[in-house]
Amino acid sequence: MMRMVVGVQIIADLYGIDPEMISKTDRVYGIIEDAVRAGMLTKISSDYYQFQPRGVSGIVLLAESHLAFHTWPEHGLVTLDIYTCGDPKGADLSFEYIIEKMRPTNVEFKKITRGNLITEEVRVTPPENMILQ
Amino acid sequence: MMRMVVGVQIIADLYGIDPEMISKTDRVYGIIEDAVRAGMLTKISSDYYQFQPRGVSGIVLLAESHLAFHTWPEHGLVTLDIYTCGDPKGADLSFEYIIEKMRPTNVEFKKITRGNLITEEVRVTPPENMILQ
After folding, report:
1. Is the torsion defined by CA of A114, A63, A55, A19 positive or negative?
2. How far apart are CA B64 and CA A56, in angstroms?
3. Three-state DSSP class for A27?
4. Which ranges constitute the DSSP H helices of B2-87?
5. With contacts defined as CB-CB under 8 Å, which chain A residues touch B6?
């Protein structure tokens, strides 16, 4: 069994977001697409789904892997995965962009490597204290 | 900050897969789409991307969240995420189906809950010893 790092994945739960911000696709869409650009990631395709009466899911297929999110407006919650096999800084920049725009009161996240899954880092922190680099 | 479980995510690295099995979209596509059905998950949409000369990425947007995978034929590696906010058994069944079809020699996986990210279970095991339930 060959184990080697092929990519980095940020797995994050964002809490305390204004429900209005994450209820409808039209508002979330712009944040996510801009986050992909902020991370200098290469979009292949993206798809979004509007739940009724509110809530959004979306996935972005990247040349570098993927970004996926799901919103629970009733809990002020967004769960987010950003996975890149390119420069890990790209995932950090996308993540920071989403936090800046969605303004969660709290963020819990792990950063894991893929291809050797055991290594990881876990942080629970309010976003203002979160420094990724 | 309200923390509550909204879903379960399997994060898995599958090693030792025959490179031919995971080089081209046409072969991987059937396994993934059938895995979604095996888990009784509800597909909203799916998209696959063929890398040159080989390697495939794919994402399936589910009513229950998402499934995403990326293949590295040169390493015999598939990284896989299956995330469901429905019955957790659906993720297990999809995962087991993919393992059965791709026949990795080794599997490393975590099962985490979303909405309270800290709880998790990690297993490193050859697939024949892997019992999810």
Report:
1. positive
2. 11
3. helix
4. 25-38
5. 70, 72, 75, 77, 79
Q: Which one of the listed residues A57, A66, A70, A75 is annotated catalytic?
A: A70
Contact present, B48 and B25 (Cβ < 8 Å):
yes
Structure tokens given for B7 = 């879903």
- H-helix or E-strand containing B98? helix B88-102
CA distance B110 to B13: 9
What pLDDT does A133 receive? 43
pLDDT of B40: 97
Name the residue type at position A78: V
A41 forms beta bridges with: none
B112 and A11 within 8 Å at the Cβ level: the answer is: yes
Chain B touched by A4 (CB under 8 Å)? yes
Q: What is the pLDDT of residues A64-119, one digit of tens each?
A: 999 999 999 999 999 999 999 999 999 999 999 999 999 999 999 989 999 876 55
